[in-house]
Structures are given as C-alpha cells and as structure tokens.
Amino acid sequence: HVQLVESGGGSVQAGGSRRLSCTPSGSIYNDNCMGWIRQAPGMEREAVAAIYTGLGRAHYADSVLGRFTISRDDTNNMLYLHMNSLNSEDTALYYCAYTTAYWGQGTQVTVS
Fold first, then answer.
1. Burial call 19-50: b when 16+ CB within 10 Å, e when fewer
2. Strand pairing partners for 23?
3. Considering the chain, what is the average pLDDT of its residues?
4. In whole angstroms, what is the distance from residue 97 CA to residue 14 CA?
5. Distance between CA atoms of 102 and 66, rounded to whole angstroms?
6. Which residue of 49, 72, 95, 111 sits 20 to 30 Å from the alpha carbon of 59, by its own alpha carbon?
7. Residue 45: which H helix or E strand, with range?
8. Widest CA span of the chain, in angstroms?
9. What does the radius of gyration of the chain's CA atoms come to, in whole angstroms?
10. What is the DSSP letter of 73?
C-alpha cells in the first residue's frame, strides 16, 4: 500500500515561487512514474509534471513549461515541485501521484 503526503502549499504573490514536497511511504519503485496533478475550482484536473524516477526523464504541461521543475530525492524518497513565476492561473489544489493508482490529499496553492 502506498501513501502520499503533500506539503508546501500556501498563499504567494504573483511572480513569486513556491516549492511543494511529497513524502511517499510504502512500496515505491524507482522505475515507476511519479508526478503532480492540479485542480482549480470549476476546472478539470491537469497533469502538471511527471518524472520517471529511474530514468530521470521529466514531462511538463505546456502551461508550466519553463516555470516549474519536478525533481526527486532518491536518498530521502521525496518528490518536489519547484514553481517559479507563479500567476493566478496556477491557483489550484496540487496532488502528488504515484503511477495512476495513488494520490495524496492535496495541498492548496493560492496566487494573488
């Protein structure tokens, strides 16, 4: 069983930065995909970034490309999302995901 706990959300001014963290526990395999998904009020869920940890390959949504960076600390088994140049459209509940089967509870990011 896998559990994911997100942290790092909060309020930030437009143009600012924020780092989200995800602490997984359970059976995490390095060659599986981990990523971040967000959902804004009234909007569909959007896959923001994903990383195939064993390969170090990352993919980004066009809306965040060049502003967000996904990274993983294999030593501490942590997943991060570094967000720069934030704008109001980045306001959403951000979820950490392991494969497509496991999600955390989410952490809210509000950009004003």
1. ebbbebeeebeeeebbbbbbeeeeeeeeebbb
2. 5
3. 92
4. 26
5. 27
6. 111
7. none
8. 38
9. 13
10. E
Question: Which among 36, 40, 2 has a CA at the least distance from the CA of 22?
Answer: 36
Q: What is the DSSP string of 79-95?
A: EEEEE-S--GGG-EEEE
**Strand locations in 2-112 (E):** 2-7, 10-12, 18-26, 33-39, 46-52, 57-60, 68-73, 78-83, 92-98, 102-103, 107-111
Place of tokens 């980004």: 60
Distance CA 50, CA 57 (A): 8
User: For residue 108, what are the β-bridge partners?
Assistant: 93
Distance CA 104, CA 36 (A): 10
Separation CA 92–CA 30 (nearest Å):
27
Q: What is the pLDDT of residues 12-58, one digit of tens each?
A: 999 999 999 999 988 777 678 899 999 998 999 999 999 986 676 89
Say if strands 102-103 and 92-98 run parallel, antiparallel, or are unpaired. antiparallel
